[in-house]
Amino acid sequence: MKVLYDITVLGNGHLNHRGRAGIFRVVENIALELVKIPDLDIEFCSSKSIIELIACQDYLKGKDEFSHVKFNVPNNAKWGIVFCKYVDNYKSKSNLYSRSRYFKKIIDFSKYRFVLAFQKLFISSGIYLQSNQYSFDIYHSPFLPLPVNLTKQHFKTSIITIHDMLTVLFPNYFEIATVTSMKKVYESITDKTWVTCNSNITKRDLLEYKSGSINPNKVFVTTLAASNHFYKSNNKNWNNECLLNYNIPSQPYILSLCTFEPRKNIIHSINAFVKMVEKYNIDDLNFVLVGNKGWDFDSIFDRLDSCTLPRSRFIVTGFVPDEHLAAIYSEAMMFVYPSFYEGFGLPPLEAMQCGLPVITSNNSSLPEVVGDAAIMIDPNDQSALKDAMYKLYSDKEFRQQLSEKGIERSKLFSWKKCADQTLEAYKTSLNTPINHV
Fold first, then answer.
1. CA pair distance 290, 325, nearest whole angstrom
2. DSSP code string of 402-436
3. Rounded Cα gap, residues 28 and 384, in angstroms
């Protein structure tokens, strides 16, 4: 079985390390497992601009696990790659370039025009020009829209992964550009497309949105997992070194990890924390916020600045790389994640795998993930969140029980299982005739 797997997301993450979260983790971890499967002859590709294609190639240079995997470069992009790399090398070696702003502008403008021209050609003429029909059995896009001309290319079937339907369900939580780009993803799904979803709730949401235009039997659930970066770290020296690096005091703290945006309900968590601290006169507990700034994040920082508690009780770390997260999870007292809606919800699973007691929402996919190994509350009920926080703060035995249950629960999920489920979708898509709805 020959599969072409789009890793554009990994190239983007290579260009911007702060983007190495969420979708990046999913695409990378599934790829790491798929390349181990003997039945699969898998190649990587990138379906967008030449710049992203080059970024994918650079990403692969640093991944020994993918050293045996071919990166498929379409014929109509090869000269563009040569030119872009030549310009970059020429700029770095040319003394004239470094001295002359005018020359710099000429080179930059020429490169810009060239890249645009090649990008247009790259997209309009088809991403993969193969000489033999059915050179690949399957084209799999784990995030981006299926290319509009994919049916003209030489693939027996195509598969797309849908991570959530949030921009359809809650467009007010996103920028217009994000809503528009995700709409292209959903619209690229036709009656000929096979789909993998990260949860049963996402499958349900997709089928409702595409009602009548997609066969439910062509939609598979491939559950995610927490990577090996997340574990219970008992190395106190290492943990303390990590905390110090992010200015986290050596005091008990509640942890929240997410993109700073309204959908994550961060202000709700802050308010519940303030009310608990003030009601019970708690002076030895802080609140640590880990994550990147997302859409409409200003209101979160405005709330922090207006709190009645000292600002020092709230530590905002910004982005934290994966290799430091286990230490930060392991030293926390509890993890709080009252999101309004999730397609899967990796952070609670990561927290449980680190042995951290979890409080999360009782909606969307989150009950599928945490089961009975976490406290689930209505994300709109501030009193419930406050009470759950205090329960974990004040009851050490209960914290330990929830920690142990969370570790056991996390063992139900693995990237190998996700890859096996993906392989099953591949096999079914090839062996089952396409039935129109």
1. 9
2. HHHHHHHHHTT--HHHHHHHHHHHHHHHHHS----
3. 37
281 and 337: one domain?
yes
Q: 157 and 257 share a domain?
A: no
Give the residue among 44, 206, 223 at the shortest CA–CA distance from 140: 44
* 219 and 330 belong to one structural domain: no
CB neighbourhood size of 412 (10 A) = 13
How far is the C-alpha of 374 from the C-alpha of 433, rounded, in Å? Answer: 42
Tokens 């608990």 belong to which residue? 276
pLDDT digits 0-9 by tens, 235-272:
999 999 999 999 999 999 999 999 999 999 999 999 99
Model confidence pLDDT, tens digit, residues 98-147 = 444 444 444 455 555 555 555 555 444 444 444 344 578 999 999 999 98
pTM recorded for the entire structure: 0.87
- Residue 436 in any domain: the answer is no
Confidence class for position 294, pLDDT limits 50, 70, 90 = confident
Same domain, 218 and 244: no
Is 15 strand, coil or helix? helix
Phi, psi angles (nearest 5°) of residue 408: -65, -40
**How many residues would you count in the chain?**
437
